[in-house]
Write a structure and sequence with these properties.
41% of the residues lie in helices and 16% in strands. It has 299 residues and is α+β, with helices and mostly antiparallel strands. A hairpin with a 2-residue loop joins strand 5 and strand 6.
Length: 299
């Protein structure tokens, strides 16, 4: 168990090659292993990896072992991420990293109607966005040939077409939880916003369905259906995500021991906390903390 006085390492803040007036930086490389530490940066990133089955990808509090193809979009400057070698045995990993800038302000270029799908996708990608295999295959040739386009304007057009194609694909998944990534997700329903605010303020305590239904001014049965319809998740799954997102953030940012974090996130039973964390995150809380500490760099 970690000492309470042990210093917390800082995530590496990457200085990207993009100059102020640049739009795209493309790194197309073949390698045998991933060695770069966990990091974040001030630009957006689309990262494609092939022939890297067994690599562990960490984006915020999401930790997953990838298959032969992986494509992830990250549009938060505060979201830590890394691809770790883990159990990958490939002799020829192909990675294409596209770092770019886009004005995502409410009155900026991307807010105009022709870009509405891309704008929505970029908003979701503040939590990290993983694309399914069929989406990867739709843009595979364009991503693979992007680094060969020498004309800057043509590269811009081609990349925007890649984003447009991805924005039309079904089956994308957000990675980090909202509570870990510290992003606000706008909902159409004020009732949903009120319920989520109540959960954010009370996740350390027992939360009863009747209390949430009262916040929404609905019966318990109607509220359960309403929440699932608007969020795609059951209320119990959402509460678990909030608690584990906050727990993961404490594991990364503090030296509190796991049992204290468990209690602070609404779990009175440490064994239950460990079991739920491992089921949702694919590793134990201690392993999750170690993934970050092994690959952090103090700067």
């Amino acid at each position: 168990m970690k000492s309470q006085t042990q210093p917390v390492a800082e995530v590496l803040h990457e200085i990207t090659p993009l100059a102020d007036k640049d739009f795209l930086y493309i790194a197309d490389r073949h390698k045998r292993e991933f060695t770069y530490p966990i990091h974040k940066h001030d630009v957006f990133e689309l990262n494609f990896v092939e022939h890297a089955s067994g690599v562990r990808r960490i984006v915020g509090d999401s930790s997953e072992v990838i298959g032969d193809y992986d494509l992830v979009l990250i549009t938060s400057t505060d979201l830590e991420h890394v691809w770790m070698q883990n159990e990958c045995k490939s002799e020829d990993i192909h990675e294409i990293t596209v770092q770019f800038r886009l004005d995502m302000s409410s009155d900026g270029f991307m807010s105009k109607n022709p870009f509405s799908r891309i704008y929505h996708m970029m908003d979701l990608a503040r939590r990290g966005l993983a694309f399914p295999l069929d989406a990867v295959m739709k843009v595979y040739n364009d991503i693979s040939s992007l680094s060969s386009v020498k004309d800057g304007f043509q590269a811009f057009i081609k990349f925007m077409c890649i984003l447009d194609t991805l924005s039309r694909c079904a089956g994308t998944r957000t990675l980090a939880t909202t509570s870990y990534a510290k992003v606000n997700i706008n909902e159409d329903s004020r009732r949903i916003l009120k319920v989520k605010a109540y959960i954010d303020q009370n996740f350390t305590e027992e939360i009863k369905l009747r209390d949430l239904a009262a916040v929404a001014c609905m019966s318990e049965a109607a509220f359960s259906r309403f929440f699932k319809l608007h969020t795609g998740r059951t209320i119990s799954d959402y509460i678990i995500d909030v608690r584990l997102g906050n727990a993961a953030r404490m594991l990364v940012d503090t030296n509190k021991n796991v049992s204290d974090i468990s209690f602070l996130c609404g779990y009175n039973n440490l064994s239950n906390f460990n079991r739920v964390f491992k089921r949702k995150k694919g590793c134990s809380p201690t392993e999750f903390r170690e993934y970050y500490r092994k690959i952090k760099v103090i700067v």
